[in-house]
Design brief:
Helix content is about 40%, strand content about 15%. It is an alpha/beta fold. Strands 3-15-14-12-11-10-9-4 form an eight-stranded parallel beta sheet. Strands 6-7-13 form a three-stranded antiparallel beta sheet, with no helix packed on it. Strands 1-2 form a two-stranded antiparallel ribbon. The longest helix is centred in the middle third of the chain and has 22 residues, at about 195-215.
Length: about 375
């Protein structure tokens, strides 16, 4: 009820203005004494053993986290940590701050339950994020940092940008995500293919080792975020390259450039499409990747997750964790409690005692 009232006001605003209002508001609210407890009371999710996941050396209270793109500058971690999410992904962050693409660059498609964005990695830069995370203190849930390259950096020098991000942010992220799949940075998606992918991942892996030696401890997990707009042949190559490079997992998927079956007039806008139209395709990509890697490379499912069925389909297809973003905009944080309850019901229905038993279940029929 509370979010439905807020949504009616937010959806009268410019989409990007509403976006900043939510993120800044969550960041401010968390600093008010007692506000965190109120957020938890309103939207928090109680941990249950059946939905807990241990992965990448971390404990996740349940499989549902926040995708990158909402909190680009890590401004609202304390607030988002209290609304029922089990982990957060912040960014995409680039070595140098950049303004991103020209306005307007974010569009709602209510009839399609979708968003189109062509933000272009607008962010304050890795140093600014490092300062913010340094002052945050102890976190209650795992944090992933999504890293990318600056728009002006040519692909042949892209590895320098990813190294730079790791050098500045290594102490503050629990794990890292290499973003090579946004459609809004020119030529970025070319890094998903051929020798460019192998060379980039080798550089990221090397830098992670350098930072681990410098700071002590084991190297932190690295995942690669891929696009949904790849053929089966391309997915096969990427899966092999990511696995052979020693990456810790894959996030499938980023936004799509496809526009099939959309109703809203704003569908003509260029950029990455997220939300309900991506549900089926992202699940198909997860299914393919799980099969291609024999289930040996953990997958985080992202794209069009609006309810427990969507999340459970991705888990049965091979995802160990899932992420939401667009659904939060349309349905609010109460979605997380509903999904938690729904996943538990589906486990019981299918005879599984833990959510980890359901991962990849469709491949064992």
């Amino acid at each position: 009820m509370l979010y439905r009232m807020a949504k009616s006001l937010l959806f009268r605003m410019d989409p990007e203005a509403a976006h900043h209002l939510i993120v800044d508001g969550m960041g401010t609210a968390a600093r008010v004494p007692g506000a965190g407890a109120i957020l938890s009371a309103l939207w928090g999710v109680r941990e249950t053993t059946d939905l807990a996941v241990d992965l990448f050396g971390f404990h996740f209270k349940h499989p549902i986290g926040l995708a990158a793109g909402l909190d680009k500058n890590a401004k609202a971690i304390a607030g988002f940590s209290r609304i029922g999410l089990s982990f957060l992904e912040v960014g995409t962050v680039t070595p140098q701050g950049q303004p991103g693409n020209e306005l307007p660059r974010l569009f709602r498609l209510p009839a399609d339950e979708a968003l189109i964005n062509r933000m272009g990695f607008n962010n304050e830069g890795a140093e600014a994020m490092a300062r913010r995370l340094r002052g945050l203190g102890r976190r209650s849930i795992p944090l992933a940092v999504n890293i990318g390259k600056n728009k002006t950096t040519p692909n042949e020098n892209a590895s320098d940008d990813y190294r730079d991000c790791l050098q500045k942010l290594y102490p503050y992220g629990d794990f890292f995500v290499v973003n090579i799949s946004s459609p809004n940075t020119p030529d970025l998606r070319a890094l998903q293919h051929g020798d460019e992918l192998k060379l980039l991942l080798a550089a990221v892996k090397d830098e992670m080792g350098v930072q681990a030696a410098r700071h002590g401890g084991l190297p932190k997990p690295i995942l690669v975020k891929i696009a949904p707009d790849n053929t089966e042949e391309q997915l096969g190559y990427m899966a092999e390259a990511i696995f052979q490079s020693g990456m810790s997992g894959i996030i499938a998927t980023n936004t799509t450039i496809e526009r099939d079956g959309l109703i809203e007039a704003t569908a003509q806008e260029t950029g990455g499409l997220s939300g309900r139209p991506l549900t089926r395709r992202s699940t198909e990509v997860i299914r393919s990747l799980y099969s291609l890697t024999d289930g040996k490379l953990p997958i985080i499912g992202s794209g069009g997750i609006f309810d427990a069925d969507d999340a459970y389909d991705k888990i049965r297809a091979g995802a160990s964790l899932v992420e939401v973003y667009t659904a939060l905009i349309y349905r609010g944080p109460g979605l997380l409690r509903e999904m938690h309850k729904g996943l538990a019901e589906r486990l019981k229905r299918d005879g599984f005692s833990r959510i980890t038993d359901a991962v990849g279940a469709d491949h064992r029929k």
